[in-house]
Amino acid sequence: MIDGLGFFAGASLIGSMLLRNIYAVKILLAVAAISFLAYGIILHLLPIIVINSVLTASGIYEMIRLTRKRKEAASTG
Fold first, then answer.
1. What is the pLDDT of residues 45-77, one digit of tens each?
2. 8: domain range?
3. How many domains does the chain have?
């Protein structure tokens, strides 16, 4: 079960490298970071927890920023 979560997180990360749509890339990277964060918490791996906490927060911020940018572009043009 725990290994499956790690493999899912890794597959999400690899999958994000194959996408061209930046919004989809950011979503998949956030999914990967959240999955790795859960993996690190379950296994009590502090470096994984710290790094993926930062990556999760930055991924969420980037998705919000991109969503706002899309909405602004749609409303102006």
1. 999 999 999 999 998 898 899 889 989 888 886
2. 2-76
3. 1
Q: What is the DSSP string of 10-65?
A: HHHHHHHHT---HHHHHHHHHHHHHHHHHHHHHHT-HHHHHHHHHHHHHHHHHHHH
Contact 32, 9 (CB under 8 A): yes
Classified as helix, coil or strand, 20 is: coil
The structure tokens listed for 68 are 């706002």
Distances (CA, A) of 34 to 20, 68, 73: 21, 22, 29
pLDDT tens by residue, 10-49: 999 999 999 999 889 988 999 999 999 999 999 999 999 9
